[in-house]
Amino acid sequence: MIAKLKRTYGSGIESLTYSGQNYMVVDRSLIPDILQILRNEEQFDYCVDITAVHYPKREKQFDVVWVLYSFPRNERIRVTTQIVDGEALSSSVPIWPGANWLEREVYDMFGIRFDGHPDLKRILLPDGWKGYPLRKDYSILQQDNEWVQINLGIESGQ
Amino acid sequence: MADQNTLTHLDLETPEKPFLDANELVINMGPQHPATHGVLRVILRLDGEKVLGLECVIGYLHRGVEKIGENRTYTMFNPYVDRMDYVAAVSNGLGYCETVEKLLNVEAPPRAQYVRVILTELNRIASHQLWLGTHALDIGAITPLFYTFRDREEILKIYEKYCGARLTTHAFRIGGLQYETYNGFEADVQNFLNFFRPKIDEYEELLTTNRIWVERTKNVGKISAEDCIALGVTGPVLRASGVKWDIRKALPYANYKNFDFEIPTGQHGDTYDRYLVRMAEMRQSVRIIEQAIDAIPEGPIMAKVPKVMKPPAGEVYHSIEAPKGELGYFIVSDGSTQPYRLRVRPPSFVNLQALDLMCRGQLVADVIAVIGTLDIVLGEVDR
Amino acid sequence: MAPVATPFFFYLLSGIMLIGGILVITRKNPVHSALALIVTLLAQASIYLMLYAPFVAGVQIILYAGGIMVLFLFVIMLVSIDRSMRERQFNSQWVAGIIAATALGGLFIAVYTKGTSIFPEHALPVVENDNTQKIATMLYGQYMFAFEIASLLLLVAIIGAVVMAKKKI
Amino acid sequence: MGRIILYIQSYLSSDQTPGAAGNMFWVLVYIMLVFGGLSVAVIAMNWLERKILAHMQVRLGPMRVGPHGLLQPIADALKLLLKEDIMPAEADGVIFWVAPFVVVLAAFTVFVVVPFGPTHAITDMNIGILFMLGVSSLSVLGIVMAGWASNSHYPLIGALRSSAQMVSYEVAMGLAVVSVVLMTSLNATGTGTLSMIGIVQAQQSQGVWFIFKFFPLGLIGFFIFAVAMVAETNRAPFDLAEAESELTAGFHTEYSGFRWSLFFLAEYSAMIAVSSIAVTLWLGGWLRPFPNALSGSTWDFMFSFFPAAAFLFLAAITFFNVVRMPKHPLFRIQTIGLAGFGVVLGLIGLVLLVPAVRMRVQDIFWFSAKVAAFMYLYIWYRGTFPRYRFDQLMRMGWKVLLPMGLGVLILTAGVALLQQNLWHP
After folding, report:
1. Residues of D in contact with C2 (CB under 8 A)
2. Chain B stretch 1-60, residues whose beta carbon is closer than 8 A to a beta carbon of chain C
């Protein structure tokens, strides 16, 4: 499967295996096509998870990870891509409606935007919150002091 | 595929017509509401009592578990996972320990595996019992709650005897178990099974053929198998829609491949089928525990793991079949003592997305039934 | 049963009725008006009781106070109260009001001054005990036809309401 | 002074209710007795419901305040009286304040015509049953007022639900009642009665409880009423108006303290009221079991010991539990309290043995016993049934009970007509 994809898209795809688990690193520009093909042709009909990893020292700061599963093939695969901070990805909600909240959470925690998402807003944190807590430069003790003071009427949430 | 048209976004902030002027009514359910199982807030848009659409507002219980994970060592983080789905703490622990074991490339010894299966399946029963009690309570039957809590107590007693805790058990360690089973563990579990088998019949006697129960649950909150898969819904909800899929069978973990059990499925994907599927799952769990008790081997309970865990750099996604669905952990290691990134894929969070679809066109009273049947735990949704 | 303190109760109930009636037309909040109307209707039912007409009193309570007024309230409560409070009330029909009031007043005065001859001199014998039975025999005997016509009319009204309310039957 | 005593005594020899006899003194006494008894019954019901429900649900229920939690209702009442009475800022003050009183008034006024015995009623109205249905339907007003005045969504929905429910079930209820009124007309004169006492007397003279009359018509009518009355009182499984899992507490969500307790009081007295209607109409009211089959002075004498026996039995149970109390010194006060309670029950039982009391109290005992059976049913329903959904409830009211009621009414009329004309020309 990956070989086939590689033939079509060439060097944009890198296939890797770690601890018996397959994953592929895909160039950002190929992501919409690859996901669509995985869903429609390769029968990866279940989007298990979407998440991101922050590498502040890299130039392309974020890894965005899709965990996909195929019921007919009983196979799991991860698709990873690297993007620069501020870059937007196209939303995969049209492909898997279940990606809705998962993308919202990625946006909430990392500030990665998804174009074409029907309702991209914060999900776990309150709407007016500033900052993206799962970025590495966001300390574990940090909070949006202004929000806490205005909305909770206390000096600090800690 | 879920019909995109039915899932259009609703502007709930500004209803088209002012309150009380016409049929449409926007009502806010929760975050303090007896039937939302915690601090779920649901904004309902109603036409009379018919639900036109709803939006979930979550995050009231957000504790930043994933951020904490990045700032704790692998061992230190282990107790935190118990606090996510606090109803099924053992399952959470199993998933986490197995994922880290995968990163470290170790495997728990057979005896530990068996004890893990026994405790996890007991946990599945306890979780389903709690679900049954609260679900029935939401629909108005108050008695099953007390029956299930009475029986769940017996499971909690076994946990307490084994590891000292009842709810947030922290029963497993990376690489196996911390404690050898206590004297009479097998007998206790066996006694529980003998005690519990007739109790399932008792629950079923109260509800399965109860006319009001059937009327309240049949054809309520229907969801098709395609919609389930498209929305990523897993666990008993998926199985009740007719998909025979259970990670224990599909991608076996622990030593589930050694056990003989069935995957109960439903056909209609309604609340009643989900009820039947969970009842059948309790019986299957009893079956698994019975086999495990008979086959439990002697031997070490802990694999060789270093005191200071430094998994090699890499990333691993591993998931287990928690009582609520697929519970996944995605851990990125950079070779240090702390995970570089720790992501939890909570079943409740993803399943909760289906609430909107399942409730449209139903009545307010059905929203309650559907929230109950999704079996969400807000500690896990919000993390 | 021997009547006790009849004039006292009569004036008490009439007073309640009058106050209730005035409140009905003066309150701006329709819910308050409806509730005042219920008070009036209940006082009226009590006056029926004093007149040895228990059946009428019972029907008054069940139908008017318990049934119709609940439906009234139902409708009023679903209407935006805030808006109706702000709206100008329809009390500008002074001419029609004065004409109606004068006519009614004239009628009352005429009955009060001349009308004593219309009514029998003495009070009717107390017939409390089989009063209800009498009504039954009258309704289902002498006035059977009228009664049935009335019920048929109501049936038509019900069907009409259902047809109008339901787009699809 | 002497005249007053004469006035008071004059009633004792009459065979009428004080209201019908026009004796104001005894009317007042009866009002006090009925409402005092009602309050005690509500308090007892509160304790019983919690205890019985608890035992159905494998738990103990109140155990701390007083022996076996006997003083719990009193403690709760005190707590409610002392609680802050909160009124939402946006509520409609006057209506919010008046609503609970309307509900209580409606629930209590009904008892004016409830016949605890041939002479044991405040009054006997010609339109007794009509009055009961009418006044009890007024409690809808209180509920609607409460729900609207709270100016909040849940109470409003609760009020709408409960009024729609009560108005719909009243129809089926009325049809069932009319079928009974038809049955009362099967006498020489051919006229029936609406009077509560008259209905029981009709059962006495026809020698059958109306539940067994024209079997199974009476039974079906009773069944319709028994379902409708649970819906009327907003109790499980028809407790949609206060379904706590959906509407938190329905129309009384915003109420607290004393005014909340008024709703509570009204709910329980309404339960007792509708049960009294059912008992009067179908179960022979104050008549003892088998008044015809087991007639004669010997049987009368035997049955007259029932009240005393019941209380002595309760006393015996209490003493048995006194013996079973833990012997720990901490439980001394509780043990003594329970023994005291048993002594009170026993004394009541002994008083009931006195011939003069024995003969007079019988009717009240049988009536209360039948009502108590209904109260137990109410608790039992609550312990077993899930809650109906609103559309199911309406479907049941309009599409099941109403046609059934109409059918029963028509069939009863037909059978009665046949019987009047063919068998007794």
Report:
1. 22
2. 18-21
Q: Which residues contact D276 (CB under 8 A, 6 or more apart)?
A: D111, D114, D367, D371
Tokens standing for residue B327: 């519970």
Q: Say what angle helices C30-50 and C69-78 make with each other, to 10 degrees.
A: 180
**Considering the entire predicted model, what is its pTM?**
0.82
Quick check: C169 contacting D, CB < 8 Å? no
Q: How confident is the model over A25-68, as pLDDT tens digits?
A: 888 888 888 888 888 887 888 888 888 888 888 888 888 888 88
Inform me whether the C-beta atom of residue D392 falls under 8 Å from chain B C-beta atoms: yes
**Å between B96 CA and nearest CA of chain A:** 16
Q: Note the ipTM here.
A: 0.75
What is the pLDDT, as a whole number, of residue B15? 45
Output the six-digit token pair for A151. Answer: 């909305």
**What count of other Cβ atoms lies within 10 Å of the Cβ of residue D143?**
32
What is the rounded distance in angstroms from the CA atom of residue B25 to the CA atom of residue D135? 33
Q: Please, are residues B90 and B120 in contact by the beta-carbon 8 Å criterion?
A: yes
Average pLDDT in the D135-152 region? 83
Give the number of B-D residue pairs with CB atoms closer than 8 Å: 80
Q: What is the residue-averaged pLDDT of chain D?
A: 83
| Element housing B319 (H / E) | strand B314-322
State phi, psi for B218 to the nearest 5 degrees.
-65, 135
Q: What letters, b where the CB count within 10 A reaches 16 and e where it falls short, cover D170-208?
A: bbbbbbbbbbbbbbbbbeeeeebbbbbbbbbbbbbeeeb
Contact assignment for B19 to C80 by CB distance below 8 Å: yes
Q: Is D255 helix (H, G, I), strand (E, B) or coil?
A: coil
Return the pLDDT at B7: 46
In terms of CATH architecture, what is C1-83? Up-down Bundle (1.20)
Span B65-382: which CATH code? 1.10.645.10
Going by C-alpha positions, the residue among D270, D241, D235, D267 that lies closest to residue D378 is D235
Does residue B350 contact residue B27 with C-beta atoms inside 8 Å?
no
Helix (H, G, I), strand (E, B) or coil at B333: strand
Domain ranges of chain C: 1-83, 129-169
